[in-house]
Amino acid sequence: RREPLALINLKKKNEETGEEELASRLDNCKAKATRHIFLIRHSQYNLDGRADKDRTLTPLGREQAELTGHRLASLGLKFDQIIHSSMTRATETTEIISKHLPGVKKISTDLLREGAPIEPDPPVSHWKPEAVQYYEDGARIEAAFRNFIHRADAKQEEDSYEIFVCHANVIRYIVCRALQFPPEGWLRLSLNNGSITHLVIRPNGRVALRTLGDTGFMPPDKITRT
């Protein structure tokens, strides 16, 4: 519902100016800037933690976050903000990354928390959450997609560069939805810890995937997928 035609009342037309006024109103609703979305998967964390607060980053996970932060800083881009999941592992990853990007504001959100976005097709034997999870988590993760992944606002004049630090399931689902692929295929994608996925959203709403789960900036012995 961000297509310019969906943002104006077509019935409200000045009889004197007619099509000329319509064109002007449409132009005011058109996006002009490109959004660059960097989706970062959190680093390796303690799988033995029973509660979220106990699932802190491992020493290797902290190293991975440093490498990811260094990589993002080396791109030389003016990042606008870092939006991160409120879960401990994502928050800690964000804190380490942000040291390499001084001055970039951080925003925490529950929408990006890990969960079960939609029942995968084909099904897998090693991961079978309760069916209710798909309804509870799925609605929230879909809301995150609709809230964060869209063309730039018409008032935005310059291209923007935004970082989202969250979780593998959330990122995989978002990528499928953004590319208009069947979302049920999300579990066929695989993401390393601390990896960078880069989506580009053009003013006309077209989306391109620049990189998926890139960890080429990490030494091989630092790469994990847990």
Automatic annotation (TrEMBL):
Its EC number is 3.1.3.16. The gene is Pgam5. It is an enzyme of class 3 (hydrolase). GO terms for cellular component: mitochondrial outer membrane. GO terms for biological process: positive regulation of mitochondrial fission; programmed cell death. Keywords: Hydrolase, Membrane, Mitochondrion, Mitochondrion outer membrane, Necrosis. It holds the Pfam family His_Phos_1. It is found in: Mitochondrion outer membrane. Its main location: mitochondrion. This is Serine/threonine-protein phosphatase PGAM5, mitochondrial. Belongs to the phosphoglycerate mutase family. BPG-dependent PGAM subfamily. One of its GO terms (molecular function) is protein serine/threonine phosphatase activity. InterPro entries: His_Pase_superF_clade-1, His_PPase_superfam, Mito_Ser/Thr_phosphatase. It catalyses: O-phospho-L-threonyl-[protein] + H2O = L-threonyl-[protein] + phosphate; O-phospho-L-seryl-[protein] + H2O = L-seryl-[protein] + phosphate.
